[in-house]
Every structure is written in C-alpha cells, then in structure tokens.
Write a structure and sequence with these properties.
Elements lengths: L5 H4 L7 H27 L2 H10 L5 H19 L3 H19 L15 H16 L6 E2 L2 E2 L1
Antiparallel strand pairs: 1-2
C-alpha cells in the first residue's frame, strides 16, 4: 500500500498505513476499556469494586471514578475524539492498576491474581497512541476525517 503524509497532502489524501495502524490501536483499546468498565459494572458491581478498592487502601470513591473514566475514555477512543489527550488521561488509571491492583502479584499476568505485566504494557500502548494521534476515521471537532 502506498503511504502518504496526510498533513502535507491535505485532508483529502488517502489514509496511510500509520493512520490505519493508529485507528486499529485506538479502537481496540477503546473496546478493551469499555469491556473492563462493563466487568466492574456487571460482574463485580460498582459497590463490589468500591469494596475492593478500599481493601487495597484506595478511597472507595476511586472505584466509581475509574469505572466512569474507563467507560468514557473507551467511547472517546473508539470515536477518535481528542485521542492524544484521552490516551494520556488513561495512563494513570493503568499505572494505578499495575501498582495497587497487580503489583504484589509479581510481573507476569499469568501469576495468581495477575501480575503487573498487562497493565504496564497497556499504559505503554496508550503513550504510543498519544504519539500517533487520532488515525483514520476519527471524530475531530465534530466531523469525521
């Protein structure tokens, strides 16, 4: 596939491989954030999640904030709305999960209670997304480009 510099060629230029890569990364992470929020809502329940947060020394209120941030952040990533900022805003959620939720379980996620490997990698992927930007088919300033 031929690649084009979309910024240099204008908004009507075909999307490049980088734009499609950013799209795939953005949408897949958005789906994962929504899935994690749904897990906290439907399986663990918000009050159960709050209880877990309190049991590891975090304010219970952080559970509700985390659920909202994961849900809204996931929707924003899928839509391509403010992708760079949303990606960076989600990094602390995953660093918190790596440290507070999984830190005592060791590195590997296959360890009992899941290690910090997966949330740490996901945080790095969010930084990569913030560097790549919106990608193809992103909602920007109320329009899809």
């Amino acid at each position: 596939m031929t690649t084009y510099d979309q910024a240099a060629a204008g908004s009507l230029a075909p999307a490049s491989n980088v734009q499609y890569a950013a799209l795939i990364l953005r949408v897949s992470m958005g789906i994962l954030f929504i899935a994690h929020a749904w897990l906290k809502i439907a399986v663990f329940t918000p009050s159960g999640t709050a209880g877990y947060f309190a049991s590891i020394g975090l304010p219970a209120l952080f559970a509700y904030v985390t659920i909202a941030v994961e849900l809204l952040g996931g929707l924003a990533l899928i839509a391509g709305f403010q992708t760079r900022w949303v990606s960076l805003a989600l990094v602390p959620v995953l660093i918190g999960a790596a440290y507070f939720g999984h830190g005592s379980a060791g590195f590997f996620f296959s360890n009992p209670n899941g290690g910090w490997e997966y949330p740490a990698f996901w945080a790095v992927a969010l930084v990569v997304q913030s560097l790549l930007g919106d990608g193809a088919f992103a909602l920007r300033n109320g329009s899809v480009r």
